[in-house]
């Protein structure tokens, strides 16, 4: 409900944002509707006063006037399209901005990007919403102006026409208004069924390997088949109600024509000639019926599409951002990192991946975190960099809660390095003005050869043309340049060879600041002053040598052969 | 005949009785539409001439018939479209499912959704499009003929106008495609920046630069608006031309007809009819839409046919003889693997180790026929896998993956996906150490998969439970315990080896402890078996030890 209100607000805002635009739209609409005002009159006069009265030049003159009005109206129609465009383009931009901001924000919060299909879907929804809004504005406006013009035109032509023509037309309009809710419901149900089928097909494609491995093809077929069948049923229901709409439309359009014909004898008795009847017919068939058709289709289809698209966009974009608390600086010093009783779980009922963790990394310390993949090391990195908040306990960086720390005072390089299209320098200075010359940082992390190959710091780079390892080198040089005094490398060197990895890590070890390395290779742990071994919620810390001696998993990971006659795992599970 | 056209033809034939309804409605509607101006014109003349209203019922009948035809056409088109599209979607789904994982190697996920979605919808509309295209000639030629009957001058005026309209429409298509190109390019640019920024989600979150990134992604918006407005202008320009042409055509016919009226060659009703015929004849542009839809249906059918023509994976009908589950690779080659030969004795565990990208996962896929080798054979208890019946093969082999995709409405469904017996679910979950955390969920096993947030390790355990519930003789574990802590992993492997049953296991592993616990290790290097033996034997080779240095 709130979502629907939000969607309505968005539309109202688009329509009323610029009153001058609204006035312009109204003005051009009057011109566009001018033939609707004049058409019947001109035809009636051309025939009645001209051709039928033996004065063909008078008839031709009236037709010439009508032609000129049509040309002017076509110009008005052009201006109307441009005014509507000026209305819906900002609307589209606002929607795009909401989608982009919301998706980036939620991807940042989740730490994992949605698929490219989701991106394509949201782009499409924005396009659909814009086109639908344009269509709705066009038809509603067109109908209103035309209807008023036609009524005025009929009134001027012959007031007796109105009681003949208007009641059946009003009845058709009322019939349409009555059928609109059902029509909108069916249309909406169909759009949603279509989305569900697409989702079911996507699920089958994504789970194909697992479905085949489980021999569950028939069950998957039955499950997706249900979505397909539901869509077909929704399609049939929509076809029925569309047929009803067509019938309603036809009745509303043709009943006035038949009523007019039936009234011809009565009209003739009151001195209304055939030319006026033809003029009235022209009003009906040339102006009112097309406008009514547009209205029926526009409201029955476009308005529903607009509602559904806006609902989807609101889902993607999430709630409008609340203002976050202001960040806090930890002061200029190299920070220490303190975790006290930290617990984190993915859901309220999921087992914690980090449970009651206590950890201290002194200012200027160098810690390596080691453990099996997926065990929660990246979660720990996210907790320390404040992008995830612990369920319980405290994470302090330089005495400041990690999620409140000024982002400029820490830097995280994740496994998937982020490089954007732009100059190399723009990429490197991402975290603010560099503290040392760019060339020095490139040389320190071993990215100098890459920078030379790319054409120096001011060369434009295309991230897609770089290998995963090259992107990591760029991200490493960027982190090296940042003013931050806490650096967290989350498998940030996994695409480099061991020698390049050693060079980069040593550069960071020399750089003043606190360093935390989520290790991809055990060699990273050998270089660190302290090692944290994560094994489920069982966590041990110590130096490399101490852990080799006391933790069989660590010895195993470190490639040390266990002493003969001892089962290391039993030892560990003790 | 191209495959796409064959598909269109089959769809049209498959529309059944709806096709007949459509044809009658469309042709009948066209004929009535053609008759209407003449009938109305005559009625007008009769009524204004004071000759009573004997024609009025005829008008009402024609209008009623027209309404009926239009309604029937819309209904038939919608219903036959829904039926045809759902059939095509069903076929597309079957083609994907029974084509096996090879399908997703050929088509991306998004592509499959498009083909089974939008494309099936467009092909489903083929019957309607075909009938509309076939009926195209009726209003145009009919209007010309009717005009000629009214007065020979009139069709000449209309024809000249029609030529003008055709030229206008051609000009419009040229205009807008050129402008649309620039618009789509900028849209693609924004999408690319957007996808890129989303890929950097972790970096952006930590750097607190979400606002800046949003601005960067949206930077091309002003230029996009420029192109969008150009597109609108092109549209508006074309609108001016068509918006002027049709009324001017009508006015021209009215003027010429008016002169004939003055000369006494035409009645007022005839003049009215002539004006309506002019509009009907000029409606060619709308009728051309039917041709456009047919062209789209044919193009969509081509894309859909590519998917539908994919052969399903063929299975034999043999059953397995009694046996311990011996797995044999006999000189197996596939893109990425060459001449792989080894045997896993029934009831034993074999670890497959190797650097990432060496072909381990492909080997695991071959072991249970998720892929077929290009040469050589894989045998289970002496039977080549392709000769086995599908149900027999899947009953015998259970798969667990590093990143399992959980398919099913609830967790119970997801775990029981490979077995017909839901009673095996809790035991399998216990063996995979998944029972505990599943029971802690608010609705336990009945929790919908989408509502159960899980860590990588928990997801792996659900995937393991699924494999354990399913595979009777052979379990293929492709890095399926990589995210488990050592205690859980030991419990899981104890459950797999202990108890009454001893299933054959093929385990793709990264940890030395896993390799050490296996009866045999097959070391894969660059697509070949570099060595096979026990972990202790292979450990002497520094190259073997180096394999484990990756991925602490």
From TrEMBL, chain A:
It comes from the Bacteria. The chain crosses the membrane at residues 21-40, 60-88, 132-155, 161-183, 246-267. Keywords: ATP-binding, Membrane, Nucleotide-binding, Transmembrane, Transmembrane helix. Residues 337-561 form the ABC transporter domain. GO terms for molecular function: ATP binding. It is a multi-pass membrane protein. Its main location: membrane. It is found in: Cell membrane. Residues 25-290 form the ABC transmembrane type-1 domain. The keyword Acetylation does not apply. PANTHER family: ATP-BINDING CASSETTE SUB-FAMILY B, ATP-BINDING CASSETTE SUB-FAMILY B MEMBER 6. This is ABC transporter ATP-binding protein/permease. The lineage of its organism: Bacteria, Bacillati, Actinomycetota, Actinomycetes, Streptosporangiales.
TrEMBL record, chain B:
Keywords: ATP-binding, Membrane, Nucleotide-binding, Transmembrane, Transmembrane helix. It is found in: Cell membrane. GO terms for molecular function: ATP binding. Residues 20-297 form the ABC transmembrane type-1 domain. Residues 322-551 form the ABC transporter domain. Pfam families: ABC_membrane, ABC_tran. It is a multi-pass membrane protein. The keyword Nucleotide-binding applies. PROSITE patterns: ABC_TM1F, ABC_TRANSPORTER_1, ABC_TRANSPORTER_2. This is ABC transporter ATP-binding protein/permease. It comes from Actinomadura parmotrematis.
